[in-house]
């Protein structure tokens, strides 16, 4: 059950609360479903993946399948499947709802009389292993179907993988329909030159478009069906390293190699982009290892890449001002993520520990009533006779008697009633029916965008997955004392 949140509480964390002992290299909260933010998945340096429960601060699942560090983790829309990407050039899809019987798994007998050493294999939880030609930096599910995967490789390649029957694998590139080789159009102007390589990519929250960053500072909008570039916008003069959306898909944040973060607004109808703010550490000019929005998209987070510090910068998205700098231990920051509903940030240090940043909420007894005073000792209080009366009874009776003698005229119109001025045309007047050429063009673009979004939706919903909450419950990898006794005997 989700706890009620105080709408007047501070919406960004202030200090570190706890540290989870592990060997993590990347972290991600589950962002959707009725239990959003209840689980934290972390990829470890030894190739394992751990799923933590944020309420109990304990590990509920350990997945073993990679042989090199796990650089990225991603959740499906209903948290049933987990996608992990590693430097061993593989991406694995895990089914978190299946728990193998520990009594049927191989084990190692205990070596002392007090403890038992048990090793269970989680290979049966693996749904699919996708192999690539280069190490995988990040892989994500399609927002509507977990059988469609978008992977970003460390060799500056973006690959779209469709695991359904009749699907395939395609390498995305900067190609526009009808465009010639070496020619491209940026912001309405044709530019000749060598096409840039794709460095990172992400789905729009609705799943109708793919947004990819290039080494030349361009942000590409790609159609998943035709795999052609729909639009280009120049964001920076340097390469784009990371990009991510907010929960509603109205804003996008980019991290580039010029050590600056940029936010852009996204038109939900046409997908058009417009620059909003630029964030930067003007003093130290440090790079950024992780970027994210808060759950309500009011704040922007950037994990700084200091060599001797563990800092997280928080800016206000609307004003662009720096709100808070979270200063942690001396270990550098590797990755961080913001909780989808609460002011909680999880950051990873180079030592592998996960630091949880939260807000401190002291008891404010003065908020119960205005004029409330805290007393250090008991004081005898004398109550007045009319102190807690809402209204004096004699005044209330006198007012009721006066209102009974008032005559109300319901037939004649009142001058206080608002009327429509005669010179303002109605909705059927010819002035409202006239459309300019610019309005017609905008309407045509909007209809085309709606048509493409509907086509992508039908494509994604074809052969759907079983990632639903009906009959699904994440089981725990825990053994009872009876099972441990049976295994050790």
Automatic annotation (TrEMBL):
SUPFAM superfamilies: WD40 repeat-like (SSF50978). One of its GO terms (cellular component) is Set1C/COMPASS complex. It is found in: Nucleus. Its main location: nucleus. SMART domains: WD40. The keyword Translocase does not apply. WD repeats lie at residues 37-62, 63-97. Keywords: Nucleus, Repeat, WD repeat. Gene3D superfamilies: YVTN repeat-like/Quinoprotein amine dehydrogenase. It holds the Pfam family WD40. Residues 412-446 are annotated as: Disordered. It comes from the Eukaryota. InterPro entries: RBBP5/Swd1 (IPR037850), WD40/YVTN_repeat-like_dom_sf (IPR015943), WD40_repeat_CS (IPR019775), WD40_repeat_dom_sf (IPR036322), WD40_rpt (IPR001680). This is Uncharacterized protein. It comes from Tremella mesenterica (Jelly fungus). The lineage of its organism: Eukaryota, Fungi, Dikarya, Basidiomycota, Agaricomycotina.
């Amino acid at each position: 059950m989700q706890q009620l949140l105080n709408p007047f509480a501070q919406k960004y964390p202030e200090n570190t609360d706890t540290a989870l002992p592990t060997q993590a290299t990347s972290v991600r909260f589950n962002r959707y479903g009725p239990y959003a933010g209840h689980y934290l998945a972390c990829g470890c340096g030894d190739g394992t993946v751990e799923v933590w429960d944020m309420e109990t601060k304990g590990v509920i699942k350990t997945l073993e399948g990679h042989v090199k560090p796990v650089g990225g983790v991603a959740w499906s829309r209903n948290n049933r499947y987990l996608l992990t990407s590693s430097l061993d050039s593989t991406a694995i899809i895990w089914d978190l709802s299946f728990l193998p019987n520990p009594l049927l798994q191989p084990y190692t007998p205990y070596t002392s009389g007090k403890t038992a050493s048990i090793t269970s294999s989680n290979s049966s939880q693996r749904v699919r292993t996708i192999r690539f030609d280069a190490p995988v930096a990040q892989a994500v599910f399609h927002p509507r179907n977990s059988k469609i995967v978008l992977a970003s490789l460390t060799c500056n390649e973006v690959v779209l993988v469709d695991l359904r029957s009749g699907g395939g694998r395609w390498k995305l590139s900067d190609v526009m329909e009808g465009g010639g080789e070496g020619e491209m159009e940026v912001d309405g102007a044709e530019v000749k030159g060598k096409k840039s390589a794709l460095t990172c990519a992400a789905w729009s929250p609705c799943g109708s478009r793919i947004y990819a960053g290039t080494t030349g500072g361009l942000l590409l909008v790609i159609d998943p069906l035709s795999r052609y570039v729909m639009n280009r916008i120049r964001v920076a003069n340097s390469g784009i390293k990371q990009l991510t959306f907010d929960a509603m898909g109205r804003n996008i944040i980019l991290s580039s190699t010029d050590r600056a973060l940029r936010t852009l607004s996204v038109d939900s109808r046409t997908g058009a982009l417009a620059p909003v703010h630029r964030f930067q550490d003007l003093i130290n000019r440090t790079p950024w290892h992780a970027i994210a929005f808060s759950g309500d998209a009011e704040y922007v987070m950037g994990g700084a890449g200091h060599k001797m510090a563990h800092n997280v910068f928080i800016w206000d998205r609307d004003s662009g001002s720096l709100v808070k700098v979270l200063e942690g231990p001396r270990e550098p920051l590797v990755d961080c993520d913001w909780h989808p509903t609460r002011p909680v940030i999880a950051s990873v240090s180079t030592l592998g520990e996960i630091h949880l940043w939260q807000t401190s909420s002291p008891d404010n007894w003065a908020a119960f009533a205005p004029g409330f005073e805290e007393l250090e000792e008991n004081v005898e209080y004398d109550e007045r006779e009319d102190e807690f009366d809402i209204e004096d009874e004699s005044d209330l009776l006198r007012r009721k008697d006066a209102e009974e003698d008032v005559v109300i005229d319901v037939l004649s119109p009142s001058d206080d009633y608002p009327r429509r001025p005669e010179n303002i045309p109605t909705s059927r007047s010819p002035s409202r029916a006239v459309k300019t050429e610019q309005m017609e063009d905008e309407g045509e673009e909007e209809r085309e965008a709606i048509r493409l979004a509907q086509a992508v939706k039908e494509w994604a919903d074809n052969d759907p997955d079983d990632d639903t909450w009906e009959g699904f419950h994440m089981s725990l990898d825990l053994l009872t004392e009876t099972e441990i006794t049976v295994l050790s005997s």
